[in-house]
Amino acid sequence: MRSLFLMILALVALVSCNKRAENFPPDNTGVRLDSTNLPIVWIEVDGEEIHRDHRIAAQMKVIDNGVGRINYADTVKHPGQRVDYEGNIALRYRGNSTYNDSPKKAYSFRTLEQPLHKCYNKKKVVILGMGKDNNWALLAPYSDKSMMRDLLAFEVSRPWMEYTPQGRFCEVFLDGTYYGVYILCEVVSKGKYRLNLKDPGTRGDELTGGYLLEVDCNDEPTYTSKYNPVTADGEPLRDRHILIQYKEPDYEEMNTAQLNYIHGRIDQMEQAIAAGSYAWIIDELSFIDYQLAMEFGHNVDGYRLSGKFFKRRDSKDPRFKMVVWDMNQAYGNTNRLDGWRTDTWIYQNNDLMSREGEVYLVPFWWQRLNTDPQYTAQLKQRWAQYRRSNLDEARLMATVDSLANVLTACGAEARNSQAWPRWGVWVWPNKYVAKDFADEVSYLKHWLHDRLIWMDEQLQ
């Protein structure tokens, strides 16, 4: 009897060893890639299941022969190609709605010195020309059928904000299966080539920075603002609360002195905004640039989710500043909460969101700032500067065309659409259902045109 039991255990173990996790494959797993103008990324997990809540060991290889050159998937037939990165990574899924509501999953990965099961020794590397770091993302455009909205937002913001992430389109294989077009992207973090934040100390000036925080949901430890979000008329919504997550350092890494300091600083910032005397504690121009990015994109998740802000040590700069992130539902790409419209302000959207049962609303900061004549005067001046530069309409449309050309020049968009067929099909939370890529780009450009006209009228 004992021998039979042991035999069964051995058979179960054998089956388990041979079982390969599916890891959310594309609808069509037979797409072939021969050559492309985009970098090619291979990820190998040896059939292991990828998780959202913890990282697994994986291998990554990136082929990139340079801008204007072709990359080949068959490295045996085409030897001598440039290996941009090859090594160990720690891999997991990332995202909230992008994870829960999209079959094409985004990834977070850390570059490592050694395999994860041996040592979690992070290794800072340069990938695709982006600054040396160990913390990266592979964004997975799915509901955004143009696949360019995040990169477009970064390009619009980059000339103005202190830091905006960089990203590159690429084509990804996972365990030999073609998974489509992704964006290999910097993560908003404290690295030297990103926010360049020093670790906070325990006393004096060292205690005052640096901190990266995020207005978001309650899926991580949070600090609750002492101020409620407000209606368009400035009335507090007593049943809603603003939650602030700890990103750098994370909650578990912070001691009591650091937590007490940053909580007190948040309270001071909000008190100053409420009182209309905030120039000493927020970088007004950074907040204006962030607002213009959110509003030009009419981003329904703007301000209230992925609302990243940071603070350096007082000796460097005592003020909070903002960072742009998470724009895949912007630029008319949603039927939620009037996000598709071109003729309203998102910062005034709490009334509608509250009626629709949204839990997380826009912080009161933005409504209060926009009642300040000095702030709104600077906002209008900054918009005029935008319109004379990267938001000049001809230049903006050329940026869209350039991004589109990168995706179509060697068939990357077509391969992605083979792997994830969506043309003519509604995908949450689309407002417009395009018949093909050209139709989607046309819709995006018309939306941008209408949004420019309306914002020009409001910010004269």
What does this structure look like?
This protein has 12 helices and 16 strands. It has 460 residues and is an alpha+beta fold. It folds into 2 domains: 19-186, no CATH class; 204-387, no CATH class. A 7-stranded mixed barrel has the order 2-3-5-6-9-11-10. Strands 13-14-12-15-16 form a 5-stranded antiparallel β-sheet. It has a two-stranded antiparallel ribbon with strand order 1-4. 40% of the residues are buried.
Please outline the major beta sheet.
Answer: 7 strands, mixed, barrel
Number of helices, where a helix is a run of at least 4 consecutive DSSP H or I residues: 12
Quick one: overall form? globular
Written as H for each helix and E for each strand, in order along the chain, the element string is HEEEEEHEEEEHEEHEEEHHEEHHHHHH
Q: Helicity level, as a percent range?
A: 25-40%
Give the terminus-to-terminus CA distance.
86 Å
